[in-house]
Amino acid sequence: MVKTQDVRSQMPGGNSKRNISQIKNIARHHSATTEGTAQSFANYHVNHHGWNTSGYHEVILRDGTVQIAYDDNVVTNGVGGHNTPTYHICVVGSGSFTDKQEEAFEERAKEAMSRFGLDVGDVLGHNEFSNTNGYSHSSNSCPGIDMDKVRGWLGGSSTSNSKPSTSSSASGRVESKVNGLRFYSKPSWSDSDVAGRVDEGIGFPNIVRKIKVGNGYQYEVKNSKGATYYITAASKYVTTTSGSTSSTSSSGGTKLSLPTGVYSMSRNSSEQLADVKLIQAALNAANFNCGEEDGYFGAKTDDALRRFQSVYLPYEIDGVYGQNSRRELDKVVNG
């Protein structure tokens, strides 16, 4: 799960709206700069181009952080003549992008494809849009990357389209990415002898214990930040944290049981401690950190839930855990 920042309140304009059903494409852009943010690009678009609304719904910074700039139903100014049916994602850089950015783009593009009912063929680079209404796009260098490769990554096509972050080392170690984390194994490993590693860019974990599951095994590992993962040779895993309540699913993973009630800061009570702990465990597992799982729905839990909602329920950012938040959290942490 990538780190997100909600900067929508800092963006200009946003008054031109559309129906979500009108969205037919996702556009990839590059900023053609070595640095920058959604805010700085918006300032340029307003002051230099005279636009009321900036060009991008999302901006992916060099460290992989995703800035959410506009709601889905806002028409932005990314590709002239094609803006009403297009959702725009900008990757900061000029023809050179980091592994973290590519991982973030893949996650966000797939999320947007799911929201709008699109497929890989609907993801286009800026210069792939047709010239229309006096706008010339085909000669544009944006997005600064071969989009056939990008679509190959999104669609899981042949190894010839492998991203820089997916590789095989001289020792035969194979690296594959699962939900933004890297899992290392060897082709010959089976569930009974897997010795995997999960890397968050900070350090490799230690294998804590081997657990018999059906006819195979899964391994409990901890990374350098203390988070726990359950993995198998098939790269199945789920994150939990110390003290989380979980149960083993029939597929061999670990499933968090989420409460069905309504919870928020204004509804705090001692009778809700166990349920709020489960909500906190799920938010931590989804990488929307809320700190200690103490059963108290305080400011940190409220903030984490709102950040989660800004990504998965952008029209329901109210800090209230209810039916919709439960549904989306369940999808993220339990699959």
Automatic annotation (TrEMBL):
Per the database record, which ranges form the SH3b domain? 165-242
Q: Where is the composition biased (Low complexity)?
A: 157-171
Task: Give the start-end ranges of region Disordered.
Answer: 1-20, 153-173
Among PROSITE patterns, the record links this protein to: SH3B
Q: Name the domain of life this protein comes from.
A: Bacteria
Protein's UniProt name: Autolysin
Organism per entry: Virgibacillus natechei
